[in-house]
Amino acid sequence: MTTFAPDRFGPLARRITRPVEIGGVQVGGGAPVVVQSMTNTDTADVATTSKQIGELWRAGSELVRVTVNTAEAAAAIPRIVERLAMMGVNVPIIGDFHYNGHTLLSNEPACAEALAKYRINPGNVGFGKKKDTQFAQLIEFAIRYGKPVRIGANWGSLDQALAARLMDENAQRALPWDAGRVMREALILSALESAQRAVELGLPAEKIILSAKVSGVQELVAVYRDLARRSDFALHLGLTEAGIGSKGIVASSAALGVLLQEGIGDTIRISLTPEPGASRTQEVVVAQELLQTMGLRAFTPMVTACPGCGRTTSEFFQELAKVVQEHVRAKMPEWKISHPGAENMTLAVMGCVVNGPGESRHANIGISLPGTGEAPSAPVFVDGEKTVTLRGEHIAQEFVALIDGYVQSHYGAARAD
């Protein structure tokens, strides 16, 4: 039976899971939901991979996974970890293994030592008689080096022997399940039975995270609800192959939002296909914004902005909202150190008199810009009180300066006690 506890960041109840430590980052056990991401570089290219890991970390990724698929990639891992340390990038690196992980870790013990966690897919760890042996070898490396593992089953690489077994069992039922339910059960059992086997081999349950990913929203919700009911392992959430652009963002948010609202999930990854030429960091930003809008975490000041209507024919409020959003996100790495707590600040950029003053009063700092036909002035509200009215060509710069001043006076080391 699932057990819940109050979440320290908001009113949502959280499913109680076993805590897993990954390179100093706790996942599960009541810890905040952790944001993670994955590189798309050739891991053997130390410079390029290290650069992208640094970008993901600076964007806010608390764990970063890399592909370890070749001898060259495995040999590069210790050099990547060393290079990251020289760059001042302190993020645990997870090795993603498929098919040949047992061989790579055996041949490159420095890789096994340098990684903070191993990801194992029970659907393609090995085939036939080799499957159990090769899975056991991977678990033995985790035990030897004291590493946690994610046992990550995936709809696209399901254990076919297990699926066939469940299909045969289903055929014997008086009321057979539909094929979709059988496949969901196969995915769940793949994760649970592999975790049980890992425990039997000697890996503590506190070093196991489970995932069971599919690419459909309703299927993902159903799978994780069932998985949460049947275990107390920490769970990694993600809609696999979510897609590109708004489709990927909406699908991931719809699925993960439901599960997080029900207290399910200890770490998340948003598996977006980047737009051509776009930064890989978008998946980190989406994950952060999902958690923050749900009240589970705070990463950067939240900006409430007017969507615009016939009363707001000028684009200035849109431009100001963009300036403010980009400014606070750019400043947050600095504020996180010098002014902790600034991530909880709320801001409002409103476009006319209808909701502008009211929304601005609800924010820590809000500005109500003039709509079409309104007087060319913009009152600013600080903690509910009107403090100044901005006019002229430098409203954006002056408003940003007010934000910076508020941070200086209200948060962290600079705050007056």
UniProtKB/TrEMBL annotation:
Which branch of life, at top level?
A: Bacteria
Q: What are the record keywords, sorted?
A: 4Fe-4S, Iron, Iron-sulfur, Isoprene biosynthesis, Metal-binding, Oxidoreductase
Q: Name one GO molecular function term.
A: 4 iron, 4 sulfur cluster binding
Its pathway, per UniProt, is:
Isoprenoid biosynthesis; isopentenyl diphosphate biosynthesis via DXP pathway; isopentenyl diphosphate from 1-deoxy-D-xylulose 5-phosphate: step 5/6
- UniProt keyword S-adenosyl-L-methionine present: no
Question: EC number(s) in its UniProt entry?
Answer: 1.17.7.3
GO-annotated biological processes:
isopentenyl diphosphate biosynthetic process, methylerythritol 4-phosphate pathway; terpenoid biosynthetic process
- All residue ranges annotated as the IspG TIM-barrel domain in the record: 17-287
Function, as annotated, reads: Converts 2C-methyl-D-erythritol 2,4-cyclodiphosphate (ME-2,4cPP) into 1-hydroxy-2-methyl-2-(E)-butenyl 4-diphosphate.
Report the sequence similarity comment from the record.
Belongs to the IspG family.
Q: What is this protein called?
A: 4-hydroxy-3-methylbut-2-en-1-yl diphosphate synthase (flavodoxin)
Specify the species. Thermomonas fusca
Upper lineage ranks? Bacteria, Pseudomonadati, Pseudomonadota, Gammaproteobacteria, Lysobacterales
UniProt gene name: ispG
